[in-house]
Amino acid sequence: MKTLLRTLLYLSLIVWLGAEIFFPVVAAITFATLQPDTHTAGTIVGHLLGILHRMGMVSGIVALALLALAPAWNIYKPRAVLIPMALIVLMLGCTVYSHYGIIPAMDRDRMAAGGAIDVNDPSNAITAHFNRLHNRSEHVEEAILLMGLASVALVAWAETTRS
């Protein structure tokens, strides 16, 4: 049972981090392939980002639940899971913020610009706001990835401190 629970914990982290690592590659290929039509590429990447966020929320909740139960089932020591749990809570918070805060604001800017943000003058206030949100979104995803890598390292460390 302990092996199954540890496997599910690692699988949930792997799914989330794998998607976080692979997403920029998919986005770059999408924009390169659809280079003349950046609006369509942005729409595709936006939908993929929604899938990434939902996968992250499910994986994060599963990982958090398993880490919370692990000390009760003598899988890890209680103190060894506190920091990974805190990081996963932060990762979930960042994912929720991006999914329900940043992305809808970017969509509003896109609609206010007439549907295709790339046809506007970059000095336009709507385009400038969209670009700031896009930059923030990239930084949030980078933070999620870094916290996820730290979580994996700390869970691996918890393996060495098991009783």
Word description of this protein:
The protein has 163 residues and is mostly helical. The protein has one domain (2-160). It has 4 helices and no strands. It has helices at residues 2-33, 38-69, 78-112, 125-160. Helix 1 runs antiparallel to helix 2, helix 2 runs antiparallel to helix 3 and helix 3 (78-112) packs antiparallel against helix 4 (125-160). It is elongated.
Give a brief outline of the structure:
The chain is mainly alpha-helical. The chain has helices at residues 2-33, 38-69, 78-112, 125-160. It has one domain (2-160).
Topology of helices and strands:
Elements (H helix, E strand, L loop, with lengths): L1 H32 L4 H32 L8 H35 L12 H36 L3
Helix pairs in contact: 1-2, 1-4, 2-3, 3-4
Q: In angstroms, what is the radius of gyration?
A: 19 Å
> Level of helix content?
over 70%
Shape: elongated
Order of helices and strands: HHHH
What is the SS-derived class? mainly alpha
Domain count: the total is: 1
Number of strands: 0
The biggest beta sheet reads:
none
Question: Which runs of at least 5 residues are low in confidence (pLDDT < 50)?
Answer: none
Strand content: under 5%
What oligomeric state do the depicted chains represent?
Answer: single chain
Arithmetic mean of pLDDT: 90
C-alpha end-to-end distance: 16 Å
Total helix count? 4
